[in-house]
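just leaving the lab so this will be short. what follows is a protein written twice so to speak, once as letters and once as structure tokens for the fold. can you read through it and tell me how you think this chain folds. anything you notice is useful, everything is just below:
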Amino acid sequence: MVVRRERFLIGAILFLVLAGIAIPYLVGWRNAGENYVFTGFLLNPQDGNSYLAKMFQGWRGDIRFTLPYTAKRGEGAYLFLFYLILGRVARLIDTPLIAIFHLARVLSALIMYLCLYRFLVHTFAQLNVRIFAFILASIGSGLGWIALLFGGFTSDFWVAEAYPFLSAFSNPHFPLGLAILLVMFTFTQGRNSGLSRWLTVILSFLLAILLPFGVVLVLLILAGVVVWECFPRYSGIFRSVVFQRLTWIGLAGIPVLIYDIVVTNRDPLLKVWNSQNLTPSPPLWDLILSLSPVIFLAVVGVGAYYQSQERSIRLLITWGILGVLLLYIPLGLQRRFMLGLFIPVCALAAAGLGVIVKNRRRFALVAILITILVFPTSLVILLSTAQAIYTHNPQIYLSKEEADGLEWINFQTPADATILAAPETGLFIPAHTGRRVFYGHPYETVDAAQKKALVIRFFEGALTNAEESELLAKTDYVFVGPREELIGSLTPARNLELAYATQAVRIYQVIEP
């Protein structure tokens, strides 16, 4: 009876969560009407469109990633293979890229939540503790909704990789990467066998492709567990199951990391992209608020269980503490260490509540109150997307004429054409046409700040004749639509020939002067 009740509860939570991450996108499509086209992204459309642009490269048959938002193609490298493969799948089964993206996202979310519960089952014997931990991690977030009342915007609204719900709402590679990470941690709690070793190797390799920083995080956490288990004499370290698992993970994952580092430093375009792609950590107060109130219960859980001999508890404590400490090492990418951080915090918080409140009914009551505190941020995110949908926010919608213009580019221009457009339009062009743009993304456009300023000056009509000629020499077409008109009214240069026109959109071909 208890098992059946537990499965029913977990199934109900899964159904609600999957509905929550899928229905808003369906509403977005349905609400487009006749005058708009939904681009398919509700949270962080900047990254979303870049993922779609990578899928377009795969759909086109590319096996090496090149920067889609940079006019120069470059040699490229075997990066972002997950999205290149998704693009190939879309072409193979003749399905729109965005449909494959969201199908992969929902399936990855389902896998992640199943792996999360399996991990918690292996960690906690107490039914109420693991169910509470699952609920917190599945739908919860921090107290960012309080900061929002005072004009603040904290990490729990936008650092998607840290929170399972936000990961599932954003893209497919975050939840799938978290699922792999959780499976690897679950394996670590068991015995070493030939099958588990090979699975560890495969999973480590896949994680390195999906989320390279995930491999770094796993290696550091497991190294911390090894030190903890073998301290103070470090005897038997080579016989440790965790050390052996650590070795296999390193053998499979580190070569991929080395390749990533080498190619991003050897290729001049990728090197600039990597230098622009900085992800600094949030301020400490932001982090605490974004993990509150569960972080305070987690501290209780650490204090109560730090002497535990259970490897699963040691892993949770190591993950939680290292996850916070690594955020503030002097690197430009340290925010990546927030990957899945909400999971150990929630698990330790549930354990901490179990220490404070022994009575089951009181435990359930306090758990409900805490859940009520951590859910509003997720609810605000959903409500904000609803507002964006019903106002046809231009960050997530194209006008019908803009979409028709992009379709013309897709069918009537060479595959290697470069388009000059406003910064906002430039974000959509590679995602919907596969064509390159002079500027379109703050990270994936090489020398982004300089080129963005140049594009704005072009549409303002502020460039000199020499500057304009130099800019047009690097492009093949100029897109002029509502977003460009907001910058300025373009007076076509002598070497611009009208190739496509509707009432709101004009596309000019650059001809030889």
